[in-house]
Amino acid sequence: MSSHAHKHDHAHGHDHASDADEHPAHAHAHGAFTPREARQAKRLAMVLGLIAFFFAFELAGAIAARSVVLQADALHLLMDVLALSMSLLAMRIAIRRPTPRFTFGMRRAEPVAAIFNSGLVLVATAEIVREGIAELRGSGEPRATIMLVVAGAALVVNGISAWLIHGALHGGAHDHHHAETTGTAGKQHGHALNLRGAWLHLLGDALGSIAALVAAIVIKLGGTVAVDAIASFVVAAILVAAAYRLVRDATLVLLEAAPPHVPVGAVRGVILAFEGIASVHDLHVWTLGAGHDAITTHVRAVKADPTLAHRLSYALREQFDCEYVTVQVESPAPGEGCDKSDEPA
Question: Which CATH code for domain 31-254?
Answer without folding.
Answer: 1.20.1510.10
